[in-house]
Amino acid sequence: xxxxxxxxxxxxxxxxxxxxxxxxxxxxxxxxxxxxxxxxxxxxxxxxxxxxxxxxxxxxxxxxxxxxxxxxxxxxxxxxxxxxxxxxxxxxxxxxxxxxxxxxxxxxxxxxxxxxxxxxxxxxxxxxxxxxxxxxxxxxxxxxxxxxxxxxxxxxxxxxxxxxxxxxxxxxxxxxxxxxxxxxxxxxxxxxxxxxxxxxxxxxxxxxxxxxxxxxxxxxxxxxxxxxxxxxxxxxxxxxxxxxxxxxxxxxxxxxxxxxxxxxxxxxxxxxxxxxxxxxxxxxxxxxxxxxxxxxxxxxxxxxxxxxxxxxxxxxxxxxxxxxxxxxxxxxxxxxxxxxxxxxxxxxxxxxxxxxxxxxxxxxxxxxxxxxxxxxxxxxxxxxxxxxxxxxxxxxxxxxxxxxxxxxxxxxxxxxxxxxxxxxxxxxxxxxxxxxxxxxxxxxxxxxxxxxxxxxxxxxxxxxxxxxxxxxxxxxxxxxxxxxxxxxxx
Length: 490
Ligand SMILES: NC(=O)C1=CN([C@@H]2O[C@H](COP(=O)(O)OP(=O)(O)OC[C@H]3O[C@@H](n4cnc5c(N)ncnc54)[C@H](O)[C@@H]3O)[C@@H](O)[C@H]2O)[C@H](O)CC1
Ligand SMILES: [K+]
What we know:
Elements: H1 3-16, E1 22-23, H2 25-37, H3 42-57, E2 64-69, H4 73-85, E3 89-93, H5 102-117, E4 121-125, H6 132-139, E5 145-150, H7 164-177, E6 181-186, E7 197-201, E8 204-205, E9 213-215, H8 222-225, H9 229-233, E10 249-253, H10 261-271, E11 276-282, H11 283-286, E12 295-299, H12 309-316, E13 321-324, H13 332-344, E14 348-352, H14 353-358, E15 370-373, H15 376-379, H16 389-393, E16 398-401, E17 406-409, E18 414-417, H17 429-441, H18 446-468, H19 474-487
Parallel strand pairs: 1-8, 2-3, 2-5, 3-4, 5-6, 6-7, 7-9, 10-11, 10-13, 11-12, 13-14, 14-15, 15-16
Antiparallel strand pairs: 16-17, 17-18
Helix pairs in contact: 3-4, 4-5, 10-17, 12-13, 17-18, 18-19
The structure holds ligand LP7C6HRI and potassium ion (K).
Ligand LP7C6HRI binds at residues 28, 32, 45-46, 49, 70-77, 100-101, 152-161, 164, 186-188, 201-202, 217, 219.
């Protein structure tokens, strides 16, 4: 499929799958990171965010401005707002060395310099007792005062901890007692702060409680649909103290008398990420696998058929994800196996290659627990009319449509992956992609696993293109997977 066709398909899908106008903090973090992947610096976004808050409040009459800043980028926005206001009092909740990011630190440093010569005042507190005096004084304040909440934004995790909890309670109490206090939240209200105004960036957040004003801060819409390192950073992290099996258990069901290489490629690529990888196939394949890392399950015959379904289902109970189809061959036996297995399997399944061709789509239900990885020819047999919104509406499965650019979509989201090159057209790279996605799917949801699998597979190919030109092999791609994971600290 040429790029023109891919982009046509992609635009049809974007026309049907509408962008969400309210997003989760996790979705915002991916967009934020992918804006940087596209070359837009975070410090620019912070500047635009802080300036957009200033623009919204500059015409509200006030004589005092008190900005409570946290140690994350929400606090960083607060530092920018302070600079634009000019005569603000900044209260950093934490020590300067606690400030978490380069962008926020840079803005704090600027404020510190200004505070030596201008009207900016900075205080650093660790406990709420240290601001008792300010709240006492504000209780009887008869000057209009704007309190700006740049404490915590989309980085909030769990219930509000001290001293934020007490500070929020004190601001809420103060507001009730003194009508001269006006509270503005940056991006997201911290805890149950009773803000009068919330200015949020790029899109409303699911955790916004008030009618937030949405301000554009320079994030292009492309950051919402081009797969980037932001998607990789959203993957579940490998815990340091994790024990065997926690990082994924994958069962590869494939192979046949003619094809034994495919399930091996799938298994070897899965093994680069998952803890346990098993292969379920006919003994003609199993006996050719001399990889000690694999757990092997063999059955008699040239092809998997319905007589093997019970055993395959029993074995699959021990695994998180099944990768189904690689090298199965297409005939009446394997057709019976695939349709019966899928109708009874309760596991997450990556459906690839021959399995895509073998499914009877007439009554088929596209479950959320399925990821399909077709190329355009296989996709055309899946009975999905892309230009028919009804057909897309019921598509709970994730589709990774492989091409010069990969399109990843389900009934809610569509993204495009631009990593990869013509060297990946070789036979076997599809088996590798299925193995990567199967391993990621163990601990991540389907859409994210599909996006990241496509990105990792393509990026491995891009690294190889630089080293070897187009003439690298599928085994080279498998060996490159750990390098990609290391580059992006997955
Ligand atoms: N999304 C964008 O395009 C931009 C967002 N900006 C601003 O960045 C924040 C998100 O920043 P982040 O560093 O990820 O996290 P936060 O600052 O929101 O919070 C982290 C901070 O808060 C502490 N913390 C987290 N949970 C709790 C809790 N339950 N109790 C106490 N403390 C908590 C944590 O320890 C950190 O110190 C976003 O909202 C925007 O305001 C960019 O500046 C512009 C682009
Ligand atoms: K906030």
